[in-house]
Design goal:
single chain; alpha+beta; 2 domains; two-stranded antiparallel sheet; 4 helices
């Protein structure tokens, strides 16, 4: 016979509401995608070395935590940082890693940003924004 063993932690996790579970899943997936993006960038630049044989592109911890508003709600993110010591020969400026997934200026997903003007047009201030949400 099959028996189910529950721990106190598992029981407390099941008590979370559905939105909290979705937000936690979104946070984990975003963190994994950012880590994979940095790992790919580092692997592509692994051959870049200075005169002493040290890598020019290395990890540099994580940025401060920030909130990003997504369709799943507000998600706390700590983006990985990269120390890129290479210099662009044309401009003479240091090369910098910029995440394609989560740019440094991004505080809300593009989907959320495109819905905000619609909400305003459909009467967010009057509370009649159901038609705007039905379209999304």
């Amino acid at each position: 016979m099959l028996s189910v063993v529950t721990t106190e932690q598992a029981t407390s996790e099941l008590r979370l509401d559905l939105d909290a579970i979705v937000r936690e899943g979104a946070r984990r997936m975003l963190a994994a995608a950012l880590e994979a993006e940095v790992d790919d960038y580092l692997a592509a630049q692994a051959a870049e070395r200075d005169e002493g044989g040290r890598r020019l592109v290395v990890r540099n911890g994580h940025a401060r935590q920030r909130e990003v508003t997504t369709a799943a709600g507000s998600v706390a993110v700590r983006a990985p940082r990269v120390n890129d010591r290479r210099v662009d020969p044309v401009s003479g400026e240091r090369v910098r890693f910029r995440s394609v997934i989560l740019p440094p200026w991004c505080r809300r997903s593009p989907k959320v940003a495109e819905v905000l003007p619609l909400l305003y047009l459909h009467g967010l201030s009057t509370g009649d924004f159901v038609p705007a949400l039905e379209a999304r």
